[in-house]
């Protein structure tokens, strides 16, 4: 483990909330930070979750990428928080 690591989640539905988002991703480990925003480029919702350890983030990427949440297929990738801030208008 190399400390905290984040995941960026694309494709969230308009009804996604910070609470439901955090709940869905906390099953993989201790979440330090979770946030939902709108993609500045297209207005769709996206999320960022930061785990306490790299192992949890990698497990979330492996198990959640391509899954459906609230009828929307999501994409989960490794990310640094600065990448999320450049793309999102945080709600």
Automatic annotation (TrEMBL):
The keyword RNA-binding applies. One of its GO terms (molecular function) is mRNA binding. Gene3D superfamilies: 3.30.70.330. Keywords: RNA-binding. GO terms for biological process: miRNA transport. PROSITE patterns: RRM. Residues 5-81 form the RRM domain. PANTHER family: GLYCINE-RICH RNA-BINDING PROTEIN RZ1A (PTHR48028:SF2). This is RRM domain-containing protein. It comes from Erythranthe guttata (Yellow monkey flower).
């Amino acid at each position: 483990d190399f400390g905290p690591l984040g995941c960026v989640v694309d494709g969230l539905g308009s009804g996604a909330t910070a609470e439901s988002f955090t709940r869905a991703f906390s099953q993989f480990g201790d979440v330090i930070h979770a946030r939902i925003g709108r993609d500045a480029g297209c207005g769709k919702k996206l999320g960022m979750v930061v785990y306490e350890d790299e192992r949890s983030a990698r497990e979330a990427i492996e198990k959640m990428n391509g899954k459906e949440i609230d009828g929307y297929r999501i994409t989960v990738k490794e990310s640094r928080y600065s990448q999320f801030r450049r793309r999102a208008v945080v709600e």
